[in-house]
Fold this sequence. Notes:
By secondary structure, the chain is an alpha+beta fold. It is built from eight helices and eight strands. The protein has a four-stranded antiparallel β-sheet with strand order 3-1-2-8. A four-stranded antiparallel β-sheet has the order 5-6-4-7, with helices on both faces. The two termini are 12 Å apart. The mean pLDDT is 90.
Amino acid sequence: MGRKWNNIKEKKASKDANTSRIYAKFGREIYVAAKQGEPDPDSNQALKVVLERAKTYNVPRVIIDRAVEKAKGGSEENYDELRYEGFGPSGSMLIVDTLTNNVNRTASDVRAAFGKNGGNMGVSGSVAYMFDHTAVIGVEGKTADEALELLMEADIDVRDILEEEGIVIVYAEPDQFHLVQEAFKANGVTDFTVAELTMLPQNEMPLSEDDQAQFEKMVDAIEDLEDVQQVYHNVDLA
Length: 238
């Protein structure tokens, strides 16, 4: 799964280079999670996941607090969670997750971003079956063997563990997300390099140089859309 970790790193690097955009997206996601349940991460698992992710992207506390307070204040602003699936150059596959207050606008914008960059929208289910919903947790200061041992002691089964560039990456079932984190915290880990609930492709595909350039242009166009929260794909960008 090393190449999948490379793609996650690429995504983080891209988002780290666009801080204002990523902060705005997190603000919206935190607001939605807080509004759908209690505005307290101890009793709202969805909010807790978003806040753990936000921490790995260094989202300022003021952004987080503003979104939570907005939810507490009973704002009437509502968002729908919608997923779009589609294809890029050479049959590459993409999943686009959005939060929108205007479904028609979002559908039109996502379709245009695909179409103008050599791709096309697919129907629901045309792509998602080739991806696995996965918890990905990255830590420093532990070896893969140490991580496996402490997770086994906590009676947690994981899909895979790898060690790369001094970081141990754990791939687990989505419902193990918090259990894996708590096991590490109980063993002295206070910060996480990665804390994501993501869609990982079952197989990755390479693209030619020209196709990859077009693919990356398409992904950038989709991610630039205001309503888009996440873009997942099956292209090996290594």
